[in-house]
Amino acid sequence: MSFTGYTAGESSHSSNVTTSNPLDLKFLPFLSFESELDWVGAQAKDSWNWSTLNSVVLGFDFEKVTSVSRSYTRTGDQTSPFSANSNKRTAGFYVENTLKLRDGRTVVAVGGRIDRITTETVDTPLKTNFTPSETTFTVFNPSLGIKHELVEGLRAHFTIGRAFIPAEASMLTGFTTTIVGGRTQISQGNPDLNPERSTSFDIGAEWTGPTTRFDVTLFRTVVKDRFISNVVISNPLPPDPIIVSVRNGLDAHISGLDLEAEQRIGSRVGVFGNATHYFARKERLATGAEQDILNVALNTVRAGVDVDFGRLSTRVSGRYVQGRKDNDFNAPGFPIVDYDNFTVVDASATYRLVRQHAIVLAINNVFDAFYYEKRGYPLQGASFKVSYRLGF
């Protein structure tokens, strides 16, 4: 049996460095927004060989995530943030049984996970246009996987399972009032909102040799109960407010191909690569029409090389992303635009001292490429990190 406890924190700070408002000019650059995310949790896991053919893995975990945000005016005064402070508490239990037949040449794994999730919005300094509240829901996700050896070194594999995405706290709880075009609009949470649910399956084959591994997998995912924002619940005559909320109803589907390859070149060098290509990546709009899912790349290719000199091991890897599109939120009407393709190269080196001691150097974005996941929010340029590791 194993137990793990963890805690982590992340903070971000955004500043305005340019503006179209002349009144902002003399204050540039100024801090406009900052946020904090904190995680704390614990995990327990155990395994049991309950027969010569069967083994079971089971575990329990708990996690609490706290989110805090603050907004500032150009003069440095704190103002009401767009999103209320919130926290999410998740308790989950999972179990998976593995059955091995034909001396392990056929493996069947059946499992499931149940989660109890509570999301809550809390009192937020300076934000008075909402009502703190909380909601709780339970979700169960089963899974099945099969591996079967066709001939020596060649295995077929198949998996099917269900997953979910919980709604953000602001979608489930709270009560926010804004003025849109001179009309009062109330955005209220929907405590009956279901999680987005997806069912995925894949089928493929893996060939493994003494120095080579190759895998090809076809996959498909269908998503149900996607979130529809800004659904009008009530639209009375002025001056009564318009009331909007969130509901379930949309769907999406993706299908594609994954390729993976590994090759050892002598005792010290290994190369690897993988690629993902989507045949389809569609989501249904509220109008009933379909469009490509935004910010999902048509093609992603990763490749790298590992070199091991005993005490010193190194890795250089690259990632190429092509065929993304998303809304341009800096243009009127938020048009959908094509994103630039990008390539990022990372490198790392680990020097093992004695026993469990090691020094690690990691260099991210070696060539200082300019790239982004969301236009207007470029990701980090070239950076390096040195760390000391001690295992026990």
Can you put this structure into words, describing what you see?
- The protein has 392 residues and is mostly beta strands.
- It folds into two domains: 292 residues, Beta Barrel (Maltoporin, Chain A); 95 residues.
- The protein is built from one helix and 24 strands.
- It has a 20-stranded mixed sheet that branches.
- The longest helix is centred in the middle third of the chain and has 4 residues.
The CATH class name of the largest domain reads Mainly Beta
So, the CATH homologous superfamily of the largest domain? TonB-dependent receptor, beta-barrel domain
What's the CATH topology name of the largest domain? Maltoporin, Chain A
The structural class is mainly beta
Write the element-wise H/E pattern from the N-terminal end onward: EEEEEEEEHEEEEEEEEEEEEEEEE
Quick one: how many beta strands?
A: 24
- Total domains, how many? 2
First and last CA, distance: 17 Å
Instruction: Tell me the number of helical segments per DSSP (H or I, 4 or more residues long).
Output: 1
Q: What profile does the largest beta sheet have?
A: 20 strands, mixed
Measured on Cα atoms, how large is the radius of gyration? 25 Å
